[in-house]
Amino acid sequence: MARNIVPMIHVPDVRATVAWYESIGFYLAAANEDCGEMDWASMTYGDGRVMFSAAGRASDAARREVDLYVYSDDIDALRSRLDGRAEIVEEPHDTFYGMREFIVRDCNRFWVTFGQQLP
Predict the structure, then answer these.
(1) Domain named Glyoxalase/fosfomycin resistance/dioxygenase: which ranges (predicted)?
(2) Is the N or C terminus of the chain more exposed, i.e. has fewer CB atoms within 10 Å?
(3) Judging by DSSP bridges, how do beta strands 27-34 and 37-45 pair with one another?
(4) pLDDT by residue (tens digit) across 55-80?
(5) Which CATH class is domain 66-119?
(6) Where in the chain do CATH 3.10.180.10 domains reside?
């Protein structure tokens, strides 16, 4: 039996969330619409997956209840591609635990950290 954890994040507008994540390199794997409104979606990034469901609330809090951590290659090139597409919380930097990371805020104000293992 395969074991995996896939986060499901409740957001105010699933369609807008899907569009934002597609704009930074995620792919829509599956979605559900009810009466013309997208109420659930599953997206992939490499081998990773995240689901979005309707009924979340907007927030102006400094941080939300959950952050996404996305393992990626070539963090600096990815940061360049996101210029103007995402609010940057932290620019690329090396961490004490051996990762090169940067953090953006998505369209729902959740933090998304992109990390790459340092050599």
Answers:
(1) 8-112
(2) N
(3) antiparallel
(4) 998 888 888 888 999 999 899 999 99
(5) alpha beta
(6) 1-55
